[in-house]
Amino acid sequence: MFRSVIAMATIALTAGVSEATVVTKVVDYEFDGTKLKGFLAYDDALKGKQPGVLVVHEWWGLDDYAKGRCKQLAELGYVAFAADMYGEGKTVDHPTDAGKMAGMVRENIKVWRGRAEAGLKQLKAQPNVDGDKLAAIGYCFGGSTCLQLAYSGADLKAVATFHAALPTPTEAEAKAIKPKLLVCHGEADGFISADSIKAFRAALDKAGTKYEFISYKDVVHSFTVPGADKHKIKGLKYDKAADEDSWKRMRALFKDTLGK
Q1: Which residue segments constitute the domains of the chain, with CATH numbers given?
Q2: What's the pLDDT tens digit per position in 92-102?
Q3: CA dist 26 → 73, 174, 205, 226 (Å)
């Protein structure tokens, strides 16, 4: 009898609770004739429309790291879509190749912003996404890509960047920024000059942009990427404390702007 009561109580407590299952899939789309392969992740146990987060990869391409971040976001209840900025889901391992691929995209602002906008469009088109609650996050090259989206006036609630290059917006671009910005930077990052940071912040300050700039002491580039030093590039190193703190700040930003 006692066991039956326990069993019934357990059933009552778990009634209506579904086990979360993160679903992932490759999404084929294109921009200006270039075939792109994005990566979608969401929790299929959630009903109704959820906030959407665009994820933009580092200069290595849409690799397992970017996909892993999508899965993490899905576990938090967001629909996450990783955009493909290079085409055909291409990834590279050598820094020379990565620099060439990222450079080819950055040199043409129409392509750079256009591919990012195409990814955002795919995210917004998902049937389980609330199109009024969208955010974007990016790492390194991906962070600067998310800033370009913001400069273009994209309808986003929040943008979070991690060890990103910080392109200076024009006065008009700075005024066009709609989302709140979170910029997480390694104070010892030798790839981002002090002058570029100063110009970036001055432009945002002049426009009255809502942003938070976090600088982690003694932290270098790629601080959110475990095993970043495997590429044997001086100035790339994972920092657990900075990684965890920046993710925590991103979650707080999303709670404030997306309501989740």
Answers
A1: 19-258 (3.40.50.1820)
A2: 999 999 999 99
A3: 16, 34, 39, 24
